[in-house]
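Record type: monomer structure entry
Structure origin: computed from sequence
Chain ID: A
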Amino acid sequence: GLKFVDVAKEAGVETGGRALGSEMYGSVRPCLGDYDNDGNIDIFLANYGPNGLYRNINGIKFKNVAPELGLAIDSCYDTGTWGDYDNNGRLDLYVNGTITRGKSYEDYLFHNDENGFINITPKIIKDNNGDHGAHWVDFDQDGDLDLALTGADADGMHHLLRNELSEELAQQSLQILVLDGKGHYTCAGSEVRLYEAGTKKLLGTNMFDTGSGYNSQNAMPVHFGLRGVKSVNIEVTVLTKGGRKSVWVENVNPKIYEGRYLIIKVNAHGELVK
């Protein structure tokens, strides 16, 4: 806990997805999420240059899959943020083009389906010309994720784009907030995995990532889209002085938590607090 070792080259993430040695290229902001639902946390990097998406192979090695998945667009970006906006059980990706020296670079919304990412950026996102700050949040607690954006307008900008997913699909989700044993927000970095109850089928993985958006911080719950899922088992992994510890909450009916969060408390020893 006193020293850090640079393992980027060994892990395969040294370049961030863009070329090294160029004064024009650089990585601006990483964000973490399990885009392929294999239980491992992957890394997206918003770059000046082609973006990088590093698939976590085994917790040690990573592979840049951005070129094959259509995400390595050569431009200037300053933030990315993961969120399952349509509750299909897979994390979608918003990527923010920067605004610099009087030029505005294009923003993107990529939908994650079984075959990769598709650019489905709607006109409202292009017109709002976001810059730097971005975060998914269910501000009206209707079950789907909305998008908060800041920008570089001369008079300032903080827009909130409401998600108009149908009520039927919006309610097929679950939001989970992990707090410490005293109810404090000290569990950043905790991982949450959902399994279909009574099976070993992994439905999704998410992490309490409190600051991926550039100049953007939060203390929001993690969100899972759960189309057609009636009951789940929840595994929460926290960091303690004794290492990684996991607790389980089983047979949770997401329907019970419509319009509110499921709060799970874990003490400093990694024990569930009821």
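Annotation 1: The CA atoms of residues 8 and 14 lie 5 Å apart.
Annotation 2: The helical segments are 8-11, 66-69, 123-128, 167-170.
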